[in-house]
Design brief:
By secondary structure, the protein is an alpha/beta fold. The protein is built from 11 helices and 9 strands. The strands form 2 sheets. The protein has a 7-stranded mixed sheet, with helices on both faces. A hairpin with a 5-residue loop joins strand 8 and strand 9. The chain is globular, with a radius of gyration of 20 Å. The protein binds S-adenosylmethionine. S-adenosylmethionine binds next to helix 6 and strand 4.
């Protein structure tokens, strides 16, 4: 009945969402739901189903988002990290693991919950990670997630620094010294249709970026040019239809090398990577 209500409301994965809400509420995994006795059933379940029926994101109802090996706190004021971004983060982790640099310097532009920065810090312990976020409300969530990871594993965040401000103008002290710039910037063209879970709950500063959606991507390109050392790498996420356009933002004609389009788990264009060339 709960799944039917969610389906009727237009939720994409009604059965999974109903089960995940029940599992979270009863403190069990989805596969253990059959172990919850009828007498232990928590009636708050129906309140949570009503919230999801009103298209509040599942992650706001549970207060949690899973990202690579992390469990992140999320809620009003911060962008819910997406599985697509896990693929780009995995690419960055692999590149950093193979990099012949003792302590690679990483910049995460627009960190939101801290998903990318924390995952890199956790998975590449020798990296020094700099995370930038302009939105003070989002930064409260970044700080909360950094503190939670620090409490569980202090060594993970020992080399992570959160910077408040606009990524267009911050981190100038690292100009020419960064090994990898990574960003999931806002990239939705203003006026596009988005589902209610996105439009009504993700912060506007995390979503919209000019008429073609590429305003922030262009800023990331100019910041990466400034920050990267010769031979440094950039990875930037974009919308499924923006692969060719973002490729040209990082075109060889404008100085970049080895520009590549990459797909997400669904096979859609999702991020572009490029190398800032070494002289000669
Ligand atoms: C799409 S969200 C991505 C958040 C997180 N990196 C992730 O992948 O889940 C974009 C983030 O960039 C931040 N942002 C947008 N423009 C910015 C700017 N010019 N300077 C700093 N942060 C910015 C937004 O506030 C938002 O938190």
């Amino acid at each position: 009945m709960a799944a039917a209500r969610l389906a009727q409301a237009g939720v994409d994965s009604p059965r999974a969402d109903a089960e995940l809400i029940a599992a979270h509420l009863h403190g069990v995994s989805r596969g253990q739901l059959h172990l919850v006795a009828d007498t232990d059933f928590n009636p708050r379940f129906w309140d949570d189903i009503a919230r999801r029926e009103a298209r509040e994101p599942l992650q706001h109802i549970t207060g949690l988002a899973y990202f690579r090996y992390l469990e992140l706190a999320v809620g009003p004021g911060v962008f819910v990290p997406r599985p697509e971004t896990e693929v780009m983060t995995g690419w960055a982790v692999d590149q950093l693991a193979a990099m012949d640099v003792a302590e690679p310097v990483v910049a995460d532009l627009g960190t939101g919950s801290g998903a990318i920065a924390l995952a890199v810090a956790q998975e590449v312990p020798r990296a020094r990670v700099h995370a930038v976020e302009a939105d003070p409300l989002a930064r409260q969530w970044t700080e909360r997630n950094i503190a939670a990871v620090a409490a569980a594993a202090p060594h993970t965040v020992g080399r992570l620094t959160l910077h408040a401000g606009d990524f267009a103008t911050t981190l100038t002290e690292l100009d020419g010294a960064v090994d990898l710039v990574i960003s999931n910037p806002p990239y939705i063209p203003v006026g596009s249709w988005v589902p209610p879970e996105v439009g009504e709950y993700d912060p506007a500063t995390a979503l919209w970026s000019g008429a073609d959606g590429l305003g922030a991507v262009r800023v990331v390109e100019s910041v990466a040019r400034r920050l990267l050392r010769p031979g440094g790498l950039v990875a930037v996420e974009h919308g499924a239809q923006q692969g060719p356009a973002v490729y040209w933002v990082f075109a060889e004609e404008s100085g970049w090398r080895q520009t590549r389009n990459h797909t997400d788990l669904a096979g859609r264009d999702r991020f572009v990577t490029a190398v800032w060339p070494a002289p000669g």
